[in-house]
Amino acid sequence: MSTPARNSASSANSWLMLLLAGAFEVGYALAVGGSHGFTRVSWSLVAVVFFLLTLWALSTALRTIDVGIGYAVWAGIGAVGAALLGPVFFDEALTGIQAVWLAVIIAGVIWLKLADRSQAPQETAVAATPPRDVQGAEA
What we know:
Blueprint: H1 4-34, H2 41-61, H3 67-89, H4 96-128
């Protein structure tokens, strides 16, 4: 049985891995944009590498983070990162209203993380409860 400190460290590592997966997703999105429909070989190869890295990091993070939460955070990081860096690397514009909605996505990702943190103590309390048999007596 794992201790609460170990669960906390595992959860922190999973969230760090999820952030890394999000960074790889940004790299993948930018590389796909630079590949011009996979017609430029160098950008296409970079896209494939980032694609494999993001899937590896995401699958590692989802070992302990719920799929729905993890996927939402990963997609949010990718969307915000690509939208913010698209104008830096490509001839794209970022309007004020787009920036507002990106801020909403960022706030949602932060709230998802905070919701995960408040759920962790309840999980360890449930895990510490001894199992009961069918009549309700402790096993």
